[in-house]
UniProtKB/TrEMBL annotation:
It comes from the Bacteria. Residues 1-24, 52-104 are annotated as: Disordered. PANTHER family: CHITIN DEACETYLASE-LIKE 4, PTHR45985. This is Lipoprotein. Residues 1-15 have a biased composition (Basic residues). One of its GO terms (biological process) is carbohydrate metabolic process. It comes from Streptomyces argyrophylli.
Length: 431
């Protein structure tokens, strides 16, 4: 079955190349990112599922109070299987960055966060590739899981997307084989020290998408995410697979909304779950993060495109939009040029802060082979180039939030006062 998309195969928007560095990129960003709903599912070949599996209770109607993470028990070294055996508690995650406050005059680390929307291990094996690449270069990444990627298609009626009919989604449900491989990669990613966050469920954008949802509707979407990931064994009938080695209630501390829509009400909703950050802002300059409504705001960032002719977002889809006008397979003759342009933009953004303010660099991507896979190849190069440099820490959003929380408020305020390319006297900034 083909991926869901408009009758033309994709939604087109007028191309704009006149975005100056002093403007917020919402118009360009959101017009471009509306297309992601029809693309992020990957090239899935849907198959049947086990018809004998028993469905978990649908989460279309919320309970009056949202479930919160349970207190962390004292770790006794034993695995504690949770619920129906889909998840387990295996102790505190290993290998995490130790958050310590900066010493007076100390230059901050250069943090780089590579994040992935969807987190599906499909036939192209991109999830496992980037998990292994991160391990090779001593990096941690953030993998945002889409909840319905663990829900079989024959149980899709369990999903009640806000403002939509049961089972409706703007992306395809995964095949049985891809559910199995995704579960396997999620477990390995966690054991490698990576973060598992949420990309929510149905990937609805535009009308009746996250931007139109109330606080309660966002809570419904979150509750259903938890239901699907905590009951994948019940819903799939895959009793032969081991439980995931972590408790979603404890480990999920943030996410990215589809198409970067709906953050105002999402921020209000996520407080009920104890989440600590949101990566749904449509874009900002490369500045040190601040909090919105008490939650860390980790936006995509404006990077120099085409040697600084204009600024575009630090996401693969926005390169696609500007290079091939949203066509997922443009002119093959231009692939080498576009790949180099993409690498150059990422590196220009990195160098601007590495030799300047040391503000974290945020890069968002999808597991896709658009334009011959050039955006994946670009990330391969960037990981190898930056994660090996002195003073660089390639971390997850969760690790960055931990580090920021460990800093003195006056230090963070001073860091936020710096321009991206400003290389200050650190003794005057970090006191």
């Amino acid at each position: 079955m083909p991926r869901k998309m408009s009758s033309s195969g994709r939604r087109r928007a007028p191309r704009s190349r006149s975005v100056p560095r002093a403007t917020r990129p919402q118009v360009l960003t959101l017009a471009a990112l509306l297309v992601v709903a029809s693309l992020v599912a990957g090239f899935l070949a849907l198959s049947g599922t086990d018809g004998n599996s028993t469905p978990a209770a649908a989460a279309g109607k919320r309970q009056k109070s949202a479930p919160k993470a349970s207190p962390t028990p004292e770790w006794d070294g034993r695995t504690k299987v949770l619920g129906d055996g889909s998840t387990s508690y295996t102790g505190p995650q290993k290998g995490q960055l130790k958050p310590v406050p900066l010493k007076p005059g100390e230059k901050p680390p250069q943090f780089v966060v590579f994040s992935w929307d969807g987190a599906l291990e499909g036939s192209d094996h991109l999830f496992s590739h980037y998990r292994e690449l991160a391990k090779e270069y001593d990096a941690h990444m953030t993998f945002f899981l889409t909840g319905i990627y663990l829900l079989p298609k024959n149980k899709k009626s369990l999903y009640h997307g806000p403002m939509h009919s049961p089972g409706d989604a703007a992306i395809d449900y995964a095949t049985d084989d891809h559910i199995r491989t995704t579960v396997e990669q999620l477990g390995k990613a966690y054991e490698d020290g990576n973060e598992i966050g949420t990309h929510f469920n149905g990937h609805f954008c535009g009308a009746k998408g996250g931007g139109d949802w109330s606080v309660e509707e966002w809570k419904s979407e979150i509750d259903q995410f938890y239901s699907f990931v905590e009951h994948w064994k019940t819903n799939t009938g895959f009793k032969d697979l081991a439980p995931l080695p972590f408790d979603f209630r404890k480990e999920v501390t943030g996410g990215r909304a589809p198409c970067l829509e709906g953050q105002p009400n999402l921020l209000k909703a996520m407080k009920s779950y104890g989440w600590r950050y949101d990566a749904s802002s449509p874009g900002d300059f490369q500045i040190w993060p601040s909090k919105k409504k008490g939650i860390w705001d980790f936006p995509l960032q404006m990077l120099p495109y085409e040697s600084g002719k204009y600024q575009g977002l630090s996401m693969d889809f926005n390169f696609l939009y500007n290079q091939s006008e949203g066509e997922t397979q443009g002119d093959p003759a231009k692939f080498p040029q576009w790949e180099q342009q993409t690498v150059d933009s990422y590196m220009a953004g990195f160098n601007r802060v590495y030799y300047g303010s040391r503000a974290p660099l945020f890069i968002g991507n999808h597991f896709e082979n658009w334009n011959g896979g050039i955006y994946m190849k670009s990330i391969d190069q960037v990981v190898k180039n930056v994660c090996t440099k002195k003073g660089v820490k390639c971390v997850s959003f969760k690790e960055l939030a931990d580090w920021l929380d460990a800093q003195k408020p006056q230090t963070l305020a001073a860091l936020r006062s710096l321009d991206p390319a400003q290389s200050p006297d650190w003794s005057a900034v970090v006191k």
